[in-house]
Structures are given as C-alpha cells and as structure tokens.
Design a protein that fits this description.
CATH superfamily of the largest domain: Histidine kinase-like ATPase, C-terminal domain
Strand order of the largest sheet: 1-3-2-6-5-4
Number of strands: 13
Radius of gyration: 51 Å
Structural class: alpha+beta
Largest sheet: 6 strands, mixed
C-alpha cells in the first residue's frame, strides 16, 4: 500500500485530483447512460400504449369478424417496425385470431396469458434472429377473452445506447488523461512559488541573509506567504546584525579593562617597586575589575530580559510606591553632587506588574539623569494616570542630547559625545536595557532633549494588566 506521507505535496494533490476527477466522470457517465436508456425505454412504452389503445378502440366492437391479417400502415404509427397480434382464450388456451401482415408465418410469443392485467415484456424474438422486442399486452374486452399484443424491435435503440456506452468507455479515459495532464501542469504552475521559496531558503545562511524570495505578481496566498517570509528574513537579518554589533561592542568594552589590568600587572612585575606603587596598581586593577563586573552584570541582565514576558512574576502593587522606593535608593547618590530629586506621584492606583522590570526602567533612567546633570541642579520625577495608562516622567537639567542622535541612544553600547567625558562612568547599556524592559511591558518610551537644556523621558504602559 502506498504511504501518502512519503509522496511529495504536488503528487498528493495530483493523486487526489485524479481520483476525484475519475469518480466524477464515472458518475456522470453512468448517470447519463442510465438516464438515456430510461428515457428511450419510457418513450417506447408510451408509444406502444398509445398504439395499443388506438387498435383496441378500432377492434373491440368487431371481435367476431376479425380478419386473419391486420393491414399494417407504416405511416400511421410512430414505431417501426410494429408487430400486432390478437389472440383469444379458449379452454384456458390461447388461440391466435389475427396478426399484422409483417408477421406472416410468425407469431409473437404469448407470455403469462393467464394474467388478465396489461403488461410489458422484453424478450428475444426467434423470427427476428433473436433480436430484442418490447411487447405490450392488454385485454380488449371486459370479459378478458380477447387480448391484443403490440410489439416493436428495440434493437436500433439498443445499438444507439451501446454506441453511447462505447463512446463513454473511449472518451472517458481520454478526457481523464487530458484533464490529468492539464491538471498536472496547473498544479505545477500553482506550486511554482513553493519551489522558488525552497530554492531561496536553501541559499540563505547565517553568513548571508541578504537574499529574498522573489515576489510573485498575483495577490494570492502565496504572495502573502512570500511577503511574510521576506519580512521574517528582514527581522532575522536585523537581529543577526544587532547580535554581531552587540558582540563586537561587548568585546571592545571588555577588552579595555583587560588591557589596563594586564598593563598594570606587567609594569608591577617588571621590577621591584615601592609599596605605594603596588597599592596604586592594585587599586587600578580593582577599579577595572569592578568595571568588567558591571559590564558583565549588565550583559547578563540584558540576556535575562530576553527570556522575560509580560505575564511572568506579576505582583499587584501601588505603582507610586515602586517609583518612590527607586527614588529613595538614588537620593544618596544624587546628594553627592548636591542634586535634588523632586518626586510627585499623583496616583495611588494598584496594577499587576513585574516589579523587577519596572525598577529596571526607573533606576536606569534616573541613574542616567544623575550622571549627566551638573552639580546643584534638580531632577523631576512624576507619576500620573492618563486614561488607561500609567505615565512616568523623569526630567533632568543636564547636558542634553542632539536631536539627530535621539534615534541611536537605545542601541547597546552607544554613547553620545557628551557621554564620553572621562568623569562620567558608563557603558552605553542603560537605555538599551530600558527599551527592552519597556517592550516587555508593551509600553512606550519617548525622549525629548536639547543640548544644554536637559532631557525629558516619558514611559507609558497600560494599567490593570493581569
């Protein structure tokens, strides 16, 4: 038995198409053949009935004076040839009284003569060389003594029906094979986009994601599939490029402290040094080790966010309490620069939220605000509701960002020119973490900034998410 699972999709469609088509042609042929045969037979029977009634009406009043031969008029009756026979029952036996002239020397078979009801019989006639005839029998008189038989040859009709059957037997398979040939071509052309998709997909690799599936001209399901696949490849290419750039940046950021650590160690070991020199070298090494640790922790957090979702680790909390707790944590850091954090929370509504993600957002934005805000300035933190949204706004009085660079600040390891100030520590991962965390909350982050006029960051996310 053929296992359809091992057959190609194209051949499976073609196979089912062939089976269904063959079944339809077979049913149509049988139905048409039976219908024609039934119609022809019915027409003959109706004609025999009508003729029989005419002859009966002509003879019923003259049964005792019937002639031996009935003159058969070919032009009078619609059937040709037509055979007529009248017999009577004497002593329970049939006796032929009169026959049509075309039956000279022959008789129609008398079947079931004891049955007084009118009836049809289909038999082979000896005198017609065993050709089939249709006989209609009915009583002429009320007593059921005289009976009339009218018959006609159905050989011509049978020949026509048999020719029709032969035509079906010949043309049916020819039509089937022609339709299968056309169907195979149609299926092949219909599935051509699948072949193109397969060939293109085989050419795509991690090393080369630039190839795309050629778009077909039609606006059908395959066109939409190709568009979807190309969009997916676009996203994959973008993701791979981001990963590649991320890896390069991470390597660069980790290489710098490693180089410093190695340099300090090599200098310290080159010759004997004073205790003060060793202490300074160890402090430098410790500083760079801490820097590396911070980078690695940020990278781990960045990777951890990829596995988090909106529905994980939800807690029903007051959003203002979470924001205030982060502000309190950073207040002592801000005091070192004599920066005042002014917090205004205009809502105490509760919401189901991942507290860790929310803290990542607020803390990283607030940390950046403190870094880039000069001494003796203010930072403003506000929380309020806007329809079905929570909005957290953090505004600083720092150095600001050029407008043309605003679309780059969410890239991992990207730092503006102002951020490269040696007095400002950082690795360019803060806002990248914020963007990823906001995306997990299905929220939105907006930044407005002007050079030397400060930056305003607004984070919006839906409330009452469960």
């Amino acid at each position: 038995m053929v296992n359809l699972e091992n057959i190609s999709f194209k051949k499976r469609i073609f196979l089912w198409y062939g089976i269904v088509l063959a079944f339809i042609i077979l049913i149509f042929s049988i139905t048409f053949y039976v219908s024609v045969k039934f119609a022809v037979t019915k027409n003959i029977k109706n004609s025999l009935k009508i003729i029989s009634e005419e002859i009966k009406n002509d003879t019923k009043d003259n049964l005792n004076n019937l002639q031996k031969y009935i003159i058969y008029d070919k032009n009078r009756y619609p059937l040709s040839p037509l055979y007529i026979q009248i017999y009577k029952i004497e002593n329970n036996n049939p006796v032929i009284v009169s026959v049509s002239t075309n039956l000279k020397g022959n008789n129609l078979p008398i079947i079931n003569y004891q049955d007084k009801n009118s009836r049809f019989n289909k038999i082979k006639a000896m005198f017609l060389k065993h050709k089939f005839i249709m006989i209609f029998t009915q009583a002429i008189d009320k007593e059921g003594k005289y009976f009339l038989e009218v018959a006609t040859s159905i050989d011509k009709q049978n020949k026509v029906i048999n020719i029709l059957l032969t035509i079906f037997l010949i043309t049916g398979p020819l039509l089937l094979f022609a339709a299968l040939f056309v169907g195979y071509k149609v299926v092949g052309n219909a599935l051509l986009p699948v072949k193109i998709i397969t060939e293109t997909a085989n050419k795509i690799s991690v090393a080369d994601l630039s190839k795309r599936v050629p778009q077909v001209k039609s606006d059908d399901e395959f066109s939409k599939l190709i568009m979807t696949i190309n969009n997916m490849i676009d996203r994959l290419e973008k993701s791979f490029n981001s990963i590649k750039q991320f890896s390069m940046n991470a390597s660069h950021e980790l290489k710098t402290p490693l180089t410093i650590i190695r340099g300090e160690a090599e200098l310290a070991l080159r010759k004997e040094r004073s205790a003060e020199y060793y202490i300074e070298s160890l402090n430098n090494i410790l500083k760079e080790a801490i820097s590396m640790q911070n980078i690695i922790e940020s990278l781990l957090l960045f990777a951890k966010l990829d596995s988090m979702s909106l529905s994980k680790d939800l807690s029903i909390v007051k959003i203002n309490e979470v924001v205030k707790s982060v502000v309190d944590d950073f207040s002592h850091i801000a005091k070192k620069k004599n920066i005042t954090i002014l917090c205004e929370c205009k809502t105490e509504s509760k919401s189901a939220v991942n507290v860790s993600i929310l803290k990542i957002i607020v803390s990283n934005i607030l940390e950046n605000a403190i870094k880039y805000t000069p001494k003796d300035k203010n930072i403003y933190v506000s929380l309020y509701e806007d329809n079905n949204l929570f909005k957290i706004v953090i505004k600083d009085e720092g150095c600001g960002i050029e407008e043309k660079k605003l679309n780059l600040i969410f890239e991992p390891f990207y730092r503006t020119d102002e951020a490269h100030n040696k007095d400002i520590e950082g690795y360019g991962l803060g806002l990248a973490l914020v963007k990823k965390a906001v995306d997990i909350l299905e929220g939105k982050i907006e930044i407005e900034s002007k050079l030397k006029a400060g930056t305003t960051v607004t984070v919006s996310f839906k409330k009452n998410r469960v």
